[in-house]
Design goal:
Order of helices and strands: HHHHHHHHHHH
Radius of gyration: 18 Å
CATH topology: Ferritin
Largest sheet: none
Shape: globular
Helix content: 55-70%
Strand content: under 5%
CATH superfamily: Ferritin, core subunit, four-helix bundle
Number of domains: 1
Number of helices: 11
Structural class: mainly alpha
Number of strands: 0
């Protein structure tokens, strides 16, 4: 789950390389993508070590079926426009930072080490996306409208971040995983604070989309995987 979230969101951001609204923003989004892929490698190398046999990080990343990916529905949503990119990033970054803040105390030393390294990067990600939410929300009438539309559309997908699966419950009880109930409380407080500064109305839509962490995805994931998996499936076991 941890690796899949970073990989799918990293891929979404990589699609924007060369298409940012300014050179500075383009480079920033690309660097965030690279940070996420670096985290993916740590998670998948550890997963391959645990699984053993001939499993590699590439097998895990590229050779699974869509229902075997456990990322949340939020991170696979498309880059409709800059407001959607920023809203998706903002919702996920605030969650991600709070998640890592708990995982640095995981009883699994490797998970704790990855979280300790990653949290430094995610603090920057959160600052970047929060500033852009304020910039667009409290900018022109057009940018405000676009930001509000993106927030309203993507908010229901955040429900998937906090719906605990049986696996997450067992890992929480073992001291390995995080307590998503506590994270949600802090997440709501921080998100509402930033949106208030951005003059954006917080969505009160009680409906939520869930299922990604259990392998039930939107139609968007299939298109993402067709790009991600092409090389490994066309040329099995290739090496650079």
């Amino acid at each position: 789950m941890l690796g899949d979230n970073s990989m799918i969101l990293g891929h979404r951001l990589s699609e924007l390389c060369g298409h940012g609204p300014s050179l500075e923003t383009d480079i920033a989004l690309t660097n965030i993508s690279l940070d996420l892929f670096g985290q993916v490698r740590h998670y998948f190398q550890y997963a391959a070590k645990i699984k053993g046999a001939e499993t590699t990080e590439d097998n895990i990343a590229f050779l699974r079926l869509p229902n075997e990916y456990k990322n949340t529905l939020l991170v696979e949503q498309p880059n409709t426009d800059l407001a959607y990119v920023i809203a998706r990033q903002f919702f996920y970054d605030v969650y991600h930072l709070l998640l890592l803040d708990q995982l640095i105390n995981s009883t699994d030393k490797q998970i704790a080490a990855i979280a300790t390294k990653s949290i430094k990067e995610v603090k920057y990600h959160t600052r970047f996306s929060s500033q852009w939410v304020k910039r667009l929300g409290d900018g022109t009438a057009e940018s405000h409208e676009k930001m509000q539309t993106a927030i309203d559309y993507l908010y229901p997908y955040t429900a998937d971040l906090f719906k605990e699966t049986p696996l997450e419950v067992s890992l929480k009880e073992a001291g390995i995983g995080a307590d998503l109930t506590k994270i949600k409380e802090s997440w709501l407080t921080q998100v509402k604070s930033v949106l208030e500064e951005a003059t954006i109305t917080f969505p009160e839509n009680p409906y939520g989309h869930v299922g990604g962490k259990e392998g039930v995805h939107s139609e968007h994931l299939g298109y993402i995987l067709s790009d991600l998996q092409y090389m490994q499936r066309a040329y099995p076991n290739m090496t650079w």
